[in-house]
Design goal:
Shape: globular
CATH superfamily of the largest domain: P-loop containing nucleotide triphosphate hydrolases
Number of strands: 5
Number of helices: 10
Number of domains: 2
Pfam families: CoaE (PF01121)
Catalytic activity: 3'-dephospho-CoA + ATP = ADP + CoA + H(+)
Family: Belongs to the CoaE family.
Strand order of the largest sheet: 2-3-1-4-5
Radius of gyration: 18 Å
CATH topology of the largest domain: Rossmann fold
Order of helices and strands: EHEHHHHEHEHHHEH
GO molecular function: ATP binding; dephospho-CoA kinase activity
Function: Catalyzes the phosphorylation of the 3'-hydroxyl group of dephosphocoenzyme A to form coenzyme A.
Strand content: 5-15%
CATH architecture of the largest domain: 3-Layer(aba) Sandwich
Largest sheet: 5 strands, parallel
Oligomer: single chain
Helix content: 55-70%
């Protein structure tokens, strides 16, 4: 059964879609969770990050100080490239392991990879479908400010740091328009599930 990539910009409603697909029975593999897992204290990835960026990116409890690392790489293309060269191969290997395990447990599984940085890192992988959650940037900005409580400038920076919407839309096999109500997003997700499974 299919291996689906689900992507979207920050505050695009991607997590809502992933949750709904999981309710239908999809196996959702969360890229952000894998990043946290491969950077766990004592991991080779965390050791490599400390070597590349200094011990001050490691918190007193031995975990990654995400804020310190973020401050180090944000707006520095070379630093971000160094970080990605450490993290992306480990994430790729671990995600592949989880996909294989899901299909081994159930050959008919629908496996959904919930991945924000698909365009940047994984677009050429052999996905059966690429699903893009899409809402206009001004709507996503509103959500970041009103729902997540971010400062307008910080929210705009987060949106600007991601690839532009048109690059995600260009790779989409399926676009879910998340600019409407939650019910409309869920209805579109349900329709996609039917399309994928014939249920």
């Amino acid at each position: 059964m299919p291996l689906i990539a689900l992507t979207g910009g920050i505050a695009s409603g991607k997590s809502t879609i992933a949750r709904r697909l999981a309710e239908h029975g999809a196996v959702v593999v969360d890229a952000d969770q894998i990043v946290r897992d491969v950077q766990a204290p004592g991991s080779p990835v965390l050791d490599a990050i400390a070597t590349a960026f200094g011990d001050d990116v490691i918190a007193s409890d031995g975990s990654l100080d995400r804020a310190a690392l973020g401050a180090r790489v944000f707006g520095d293309a070379e630093a971000l490239k160094r970080l990605n060269a450490i993290v992306h191969p480990a994430v790729r290997a671990e995600s592949a392991r989880r996909f294989t395990a899901a299909f081994a447990a159930d050959a008919d599984a629908v496996v959904v990879y919930d991945v924000p940085l698909l365009v940047e890192a994984r677009v050429d992988d052999p996905w059966d479908r690429i699903v893009v959650a899409h809402a206009p940037a001004d709507e996503r900005l509103r959500r970041l400010i009103e729902i997540r409580g971010m400062e307008p400038g910080a929210a705009q920076d987060r949106i600007d740091a991601q690839v532009p919407d048109h690059e995600r839309l260009e790779i989409a096999d399926i676009v879910i328009d998340t600019s409407g109500t939650l019910e409309e997003t869920v209805a579109q997700t349900d329709a996609i599930w039917k399309q994928l499974t014939g249920e």
